[in-house]
Specification:
Elements (H helix, E strand, L loop, with lengths): L1 H24 L3 E3 L4 E3 L9 H13 L3 H14 L4 H16 L3 H14 L6 H16 L7 H7 L4 H12 L6 H14 L3 H14 L4 H17 L8 H16 L6 H28 L3 H14 L5 H11 L5
Antiparallel strand pairs: 1-2
Helix pairs in contact: 2-3, 2-4, 3-4, 4-5, 5-6, 6-8, 8-9, 9-10, 9-11, 10-11, 11-12, 12-13, 13-14, 14-15
Length: about 325
């Protein structure tokens, strides 16, 4: 009997010693519904539908921190439920709400990766496409500090490539492919941009974006050519591409811009010929110099270099 009492006292003492530690790590409350103590921090509703509705309440109150916690509880406790995909979608939407666009894109991708048969698939692709557009416009607030430090980010390309991979024949794929080229062009990577625009034309030839891509290819070639250099093959290619575009799409909004670009490139070609002529003139190879100056007068009449070349021809008239 004494032994039994001692055991009880030891046990009670042990429990008493443990209570502060337990109390410091968890808060337990009695719930009449379950007839037991629960820890509200880890408690999940009786059904996935109830848990989803509970979590959505925080979402609509713009309490994304608590909302995400409740959505994560649903996914953890009801991983096979239909509502799990909805919970993952809401987690992504919370990130988007808070301006963490690239993070939101990744969370949306988890909807497709973890729940491939979810009816959210089409909506996810649209969300990712919209995120790509927002990032293209520099609206990813959460990544601004990183971009400032490293001088830019190519995350937007990943987003658009994922849109294409998720729905290669969907409505957003052609424009996503085109915008990859547009982003690279803005970064000054003209050859890489040109390759992406060509892919737009090859993969989506019937798309409206194919027409725009043809113009962008000519523009990329135009900007690839240097200010003035002896070998202007890239410039010549750009001129032909702009001419072809204006001829193929005479009524397109970009046709006049294409014609304007041709004039700019003609100006550049004339300058190049003038530089070559000056080189020969300095070498006292006057016949070669005259040939280049004459070429400017005959072939580039509407450029600012034609009058200058004519003056040079008159000055070199009697030189041999």
């Amino acid at each position: 009997m004494i032994t039994r009492v001692l055991r009880i006292l030891i046990f009670v003492g042990f429990i008493s010693g443990m209570m502060p530690a337990v109390a410091s790590h968890a808060f337990w409350v009695w719930t009449p519904e379950t007839g037991k103590f629960i820890n509200p921090k880890n408690h999940v509703k009786a059904t996935p539908q109830e848990q989803l509705e509970y979590a959505v309440g925080f979402y609509h109150e713009n309490d994304c921190d608590q909302g995400v916690k409740e959505f994560e509880k649903l996914i953890k406790n009801y991983p096979r439920a239909r509502e799990a995909a909805d919970a993952q979608f809401y987690i992504a939407s919370c990130q988007e709400k808070e301006g963490a666009l690239f993070k939101a894109y990744k969370e949306y991708q988890l909807v497709l990766d973890k729940y491939p048969f979810s009816d959210k698939a089409g909506e996810v692709v649209k969300k990712q496409y919209d995120i790509g557009n927002a990032m293209l416009e520099g609206k990813d607030r959460k990544n601004k500090i990183i971009k400032t430090i490293i001088g830019g980010s190519y995350d937007v390309i990943e987003v658009f490539r994922t849109v294409i991979k998720n729905a290669p024949y969907g409505p957003y794929a052609p424009s996503a492919q085109y915008k990859i080229g547009l982003y690279l062009h803005e970064k000054g990577l003209y050859q890489e941009a040109r390759d992406e625009f060509e892919k737009t034309i090859n993969d989506y030839p019937e798309s409206e974006w194919a027409k725009a891509a043809k113009y962008q290819i000519a523009l990329a070639d135009s900007q690839r050519s240097s200010e003035a250099q002896y070998d202007q093959q890239v410039t010549k290619s750009a001129i032909e591409e702009f001419k072809e575009f204006a001829k193929e799409y005479p009524d397109a909004e970009l046709s006049q811009k294409a014609k304007d670009e041709v004039n700019k490139l003609k100006e550049k070609e004339a300058e190049n010929n003038f530089v070559v002529a000056q080189f020969y003139e300095k070498q006292k190879k006057y016949q070669a110099a005259r040939l280049y100056y004459s070429s400017i007068v005959e072939n580039y009449k509407n450029t600012s270099w034609a009058p200058k070349a004519l003056e040079k021809l008159q000055a070199l008239k009697f030189e041999k």
